[in-house]
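Quick one - inputs below.
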Amino acid sequence: MSTPLIKLTKKDFESNQDVRWCPGCGDYAILATVQRTLAQLGVARETTTFISGIGCSSRFPYYMNTYGFHTIHGRAPAIATGLKMARPELDVWVVTGDGDGLSIGGNHLMHALRRNVGLKIMLFNNQIYGLTKGQYSPTSAVGTKAASTPMGSLDYPINPLALALAAGATFVARVADTDAKLMATVLQEAYHHQGSVFIEILQNCPVFNDGIWEAITDDAPGRQIVLRDGEPLLFAGGTKGVAIGQDFQAAVVDAKNPAVSMHRAHGTLGYAQMLASLTAAEFPVPVGVLYKVEKPSYEAMANSQVADAIAAKGRGKLEALLAEGMTWRVS
Amino acid sequence: MTKSIQTLDRVVIRFAGDSGDGMQLTGTEFAKAAAEAGNDIATFPDFPAEIRAPAGSLPGVSGFQLHFSSSDIFTPGDAPDVLVVMNPAALKVNLKDLPVGGMLIINGGTFIEANLKKAGYAVNPLGDGSLEPYKVHTVDISALTTAALDATELSNKEKGRSKNFFALGLVFWMYGRDLAPEIARIEAQFAKKPQFAAANIAVLKAGYHYGETAELFQHTYHVPPAKFTPGFYRNIAGNEALATGLIAGAELAGKTLYFSGYPITPASAILHALAKNKHFGCITFQAEDEIAAIGAAIGAAYGGAVAVTASSGPGIALKMEAMGLAVMTELPLVIINVQRGGPSTGLPTKTEQSDLWQALCGRNGESPVPVFAAKTPGDCFYAAIEAIRIAIKYMTPVMLLSDGYIANGTEPWPVPDVKDLAPFPVVHRTDPAGYNVYARNEDLARAWVIPGTPGLEHRIGGIEKDALTGNISYDPANHEKQTHTRAAKVAKIAQDIAPMDVYGERSGDVLVIGWGGTHGSLRAGVESLRAQGKRVTHAHVRWLNPIEPELAGLVTKFKHVLVAELNMGQLRSLIRSEYLVDAQGLNKIQGQPFKVAEVVDAVNKLLEGKSVH
Ligand SMILES: Cc1ncc(C[n+]2csc(CCOP(=O)(O)OP(=O)(O)O)c2C)c(N)n1
Ligand code: SF4
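Output:
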């Protein structure tokens, strides 16, 4: 996280490669916001690394003028874990999709989060497989008619935030691709978080799943609760609120109702899970930082075990290692 | 009664009992005593896949074979001269290997109806004359052990645990071994539980004195020391040697070692050995699966660490896609496969060499990976260093093959002087001027630029890249060029391959070709054939991709070429297609190493104009 002498601008974070997403793809907006935010944060290009899997979203690193690694389908969290363990001083961002991160790579995502590896994972959720031309994904709604499911998909979708919380992520957030302002705030907060960050970005795929988030994004005040630490869960221009009762039932109530819950990003896991379970049809969708706790990061602990071992035993000597076990001298 | 002492050149002894009987410990301790007495030794542990198969059952039998000798030996021995069995199941499983006239020491106390039944004996073999062809000594080790511990507070169960030390004491006496160092070892090992140390020592002595006083044995035996080149020796197993070599290799490269693995037999011991040596600065990572393990290693390599992952057959299968990524992105990475019996879960605790094709061809696309194999436990040390050196020099994943036999087997290893190990310090490129991701040096390697280096920010990935800039390129000619270049780079490694291990003349009647862990059996077999004046040569292949350059000049100079491997003929087919020679195969797929006699027999058949199998 060394600070460059010259203040970088958004442009400095743009690589010389032509961006090849389809026109109108939500990924453009995300890219622009990430570039702008990194410039605002004043990070150095050389200590910034983007690791991705495979999918449209995973092309992201090519467009960033930082270090970047476009890896294989689903494995980015694992690869990023190795990088972060070997080089804890680097900022390691992971870009993944709903197929990449939750289907083929679900296992790695879960384990990276539970270990609290200091990765900043952005999952671009477009509820579809874009790159392979429009099959339904693990986040698609039941009944999604797609290339592989002409009669509608059968499987129940996974809730990415609930999964991340259950896995043990220490920073969990959600933001829509079009909300540049909120995204910048979330990214900035995420940047300063030490452990694993998981951000679900609601992303539009105009080609295969156009408007899938429309209900939420087109009427943002009516359909979203912007989470602010220490403030009540209000939406619809501050006229309505969400109350989470002691029976763990959520209800939309009048803003003046004293039962309206107060948002605490440092709240309990149970509360965060309640927030994650507020889904579009019945509730406004929470955006912003749902949950944030401090825990030692995996890479810090892994490296301090090495330091502790050296402190306890002294730096290992090859001569001594070679002479371990059963040895004898023949003269 | 004084007993006569017989001098023997060599002895093969096998200890067999239930998994819970401590046979591995007995064998290891006896091996230590033999090494201390100056014998050459080779060991072969053979244990079941089940951690605790039902006590007394056939699948629960665990064995440890030791060959000790006053002359050079290469293998743990074809067949035991002495078989120590702790229960009926051990007798049932092992008796077939004992030659007629061999010595059989039996813990008679366990030959009770329940145990006999579990082992499938309808009648007690101790009484039915079936053991007449052998020199049988029946000793009630169980009862004698309990008796030796009469005065202690230990429970009967705890007393029973010491019985392997009775067997150990008995063989110590038989072979005139000194008890003092063993007592010291027991004291050290059980320092935290002195009551068990005392019990084990009491039982060890009881076994020893039993040999002395009982009228059972006519002789004791003396195996004189072998003539070792003076120096410092260590009894080492292949997996230990690999771990040690990885630490050494990273140190010679001047880099941090990053090792990631997922538990699997027989590779896990490498992770264990490294995890306890973190004071060498190495980072170890137990990943969620083998894919993550290689993924993390790739990430660490990208970050500039000496990255290594190890597994066995099924785990290696899972790593293949990621290996392709390392090929494409040209990152240094060492992948170790400690082979075991396959396919699928196969024979997890048994040895085999059937992953050669997997190593050479197991990925999609034209995906050349350098592959070579360690040949002995001690060689694993040097192989680990070589793998790291080649991976870095050529910026490539390298696959190092070991196998269950050399991973767990041990041999006396001349401990190298650290000063004799040549360093190969890594220099990362830091100069941004004129940098291109896929610009290459004279060895066709690209520069290893690591994140954190200002001005050299770049992107890599699995999609085909422009041969110079590294930008995504779908250009047909570029793909062909990159494909050829990747292959040419791996082919260049031939310039680093040491002279081949060839034993015998460079022409003759039979060329025995082997690779990997069969080295000992093949060398011993060829040695004995040559001692009979036969024109036989043993060439042991280390490098499989690129293939040993010297092989081309050898295969045409012999009347017969015999490729001996613990598989269906994987190297043989490679040799046939590469050199268009009519190579014959000696193949064994029993989860067991070659016996020397099998090698001798196969060569003799070829010499007599018969077919091998
Ligand atoms: C091992 C493997 N299996 C399948 C694929 C094909 N594949 C590429 S991307 C993709 C799905 C991508 O979907 P998502 O992660 O949602 O990303 P999006 O393209 O929508 O951004 C699949 C199945 C692959 N590249 N590798
Ligand atoms: S297919 Fe969809 S997700 Fe992929 S680039 Fe096009 S619009 Fe974006």
